[in-house]
Design a protein that fits this description.
- By secondary structure, the chain is α+β, with helices and mostly antiparallel strands.
- It has one domain.
- It has a 4-stranded antiparallel β-sheet with strand order 1-4-2-3.
Length: 149
């Protein structure tokens, strides 16, 4: 991605997902991820799977070796590699995984926000803070509000 491409790029986010040690990922979320890509909501820049051993060691897992159930063609995501992820990024992401668990690290561009972000950059604006509110936090706040009512 060069500087000219950046002029038309949406915000780039990442997420780390942990799969329970006692359950193999089934791949049921991959068709939904594909739909987001096909509908130009996001662009997958990197998708990496890792396994954290019970001793804390981390190893990469090729997407076609994860063992997803079903008929989904993983080739679409097997080629997602922008080189934005450095080996130290993978190590840091794996630190949040529990021993014995596997995980996925996803880096994606928010294509839906690209025109808005481009307009802001042309105005000289810059993003100075960002964050997410976890669903658990929203549910807790709603429960707290209900108990006050």
């Amino acid at each position: 991605m060069n500087t000219t491409d950046f002029d038309h790029t949406g915000p780039i986010d990442y997420l780390v997902v942990e799969f329970p040690a006692d359950r193999q990922p089934d791949g049921s979320a991959l068709p939904l991820l594909r739909d987001l890509v096909e509908n130009n909501v996001i662009r997958v820049l990197d998708l990496v799977f890792v396994r954290k051993g019970t001793d804390g060691t981390v190893e990469g897992i090729a997407i076609d070796a994860v063992g997803f159930a079903g008929e989904f063609d993983v080739a679409l995501f097997a080629e997602a590699a922008s080189d934005l992820l450095h080996p130290t990024d993978l190590e840091q992401a794996a630190e949040v995984l529990e021993p014995g668990c596997s995980g996925a690290i996803l880096v994606y561009e928010n294509c839906w926000a690209a025109p808005f972000a481009s307009a802001l950059r042309r105005e000289g604006a810059q993003l100075v803070a960002s964050g997410r509110i976890p669903v658990q936090g929203i549910l807790a706040a709603l429960d707290a509000a209900d108990s006050v009512s």
